[in-house]
Design brief:
alpha+beta, 2,3-Dihydroxybiphenyl 1,2-Dioxygenase, domain 1, 4-stranded mixed beta sheet
């Protein structure tokens, strides 16, 4: 079983499409007077002009599409100027707010609470690579040895800048940027960069 789509009812298709193009940062994928669709990473988010089919509908908060942002700053930017029906609140490890769209539907917007760098530092022993990423990173940073150990040494430096965005940790240290998956502690990539 796979959940592939969700639709919400709208009164004015053009107004709703304009609202969601701005909210989702993308153009509508399929536009129609009756049913329009935004395809978001394979998931189909639909807008249904229910009145054209003479259907009844009650707007409100019984079912809320939830849109995930990468950061609190992005979340604040998205809800700025919108009608807020649930104020920005931290719920466990998520920031959550609800807005009312152009048609009266409630939409949840969430973002992760910034993780503390110690969370990564406390799990450095779990750092590892895949066989393919080991080879790729060795070429990227011009080393011969164990990539995970090389990364541990840089991440543990006192002046390392550690930040979590979404599902990954991003570390800037010693002229390199290292990306680590926050769930599995897999080193995804490492590369030489110039920091401003």
């Amino acid at each position: 079983m796979k959940l592939q789509s969700l639709y919400i009812c709208v009164k004015d298709m053009d107004r709703a499409v304009e609202f969601y193009e701005e909210l989702l940062n993308q153009k509508v994928t399929e536009k129609d007077d009756l049913y329009s669709v935004f395809v978001i990473h394979g998931f189909r988010f639909g807008l249904f002009a229910y009145q054209k089919m003479k259907e009844e509908h009650i707007f409100g908060s019984n079912c809320l599409p939830s849109i995930d942002m990468d950061s609190l700053e992005e979340l604040k930017e998205k809800i700025n100027g919108k009608e807020i029906c649930f104020p920005l609140t931290q719920i466990k490890k998520r920031w959550v707010a609800e807005i009312v769209d152009s048609e009266g539907n409630h939409i949840e917007i969430t973002a992760p609470v910034e993780a503390e760098p110690n969370e990564l530092l406390d799990h450095l022993e779990q750092l590892h690579t895949t066989e393919l990423s080991q080879i790729r990173i060795q070429k990227n940073v011009n080393i011969q040895g164990d990539v995970a150990e090389w990364c541990r040494n840089r991440i543990s430096q006192k002046d390392a800048k550690i930040k979590r965005r979404g599902k990954n940790w991003y570390i800037q240290a010693d002229g390199y940027e290292i990306t680590v998956n926050a769930g599995s502690y897999t080193v995804i990539t490492a590369k030489k960069v110039k920091f401003s």
